[in-house]
Amino acid sequence: MRYQISGKQIDIGDALQTHVKAELGEGVKKYAERPTEAVVIFSKSGHEFVCEATVHLSTGLTASAKAHSTDIYGAFDSCNEKMEKQLRRYKRRLKDHHKDRAEPVEFLGASSYILASDSDSDAQEPETLQPMIIAEMQTKIATLSVGEAVMQMEISGAPVLVFRNEGKDGVNVVYRREDGNIGWIDP
Known about the structure:
Blueprint: E1 2-7, H1 14-31, E2 35-45, E3 48-57, E4 62-69, H2 72-89, H3 91-99, E5 107-115, E6 133-144, H4 146-156, E7 160-165, E8 171-176, E9 182-185
Parallel strand pairs: 1-2, 6-7
Antiparallel strand pairs: 2-3, 3-4, 5-6, 7-8, 8-9
């Protein structure tokens, strides 16, 4: 597994990197088959350290976790516990969904845009109804079943997931509703 361990405006020592590689590698390999890459980012928010970890699996699924603590090692340990809990919870589902899948998840290229918010122009009427594009990025849309999409959304902690439905070959959306249930949009 490849590791990318970095800090946002803080120095990450060799001891912490060794600790992260040992603990994260052991926990992820216990619950997930063939992890390919782990990205761990440390930052500081006020008096607390923040640890964000993302693990990419060879099946195409991604698990992520985030934790805060006053100690940088404590932040990582809490984040690692959350990651292990997610992977342990979905281990059976991961194996069941991908047992029949002979090849990894396919990805379709797409563009992603960040649009300016209207909060800056409270008193002034906009000149056009066309929103201003701040940034354009490339993103990937996975080809999944609905069950795999729901699982991916829950593992990654995302509120919404856009995916290509392998059963109908169209673009679908799953999202977390305000009542706690999961919604599915199938155009």
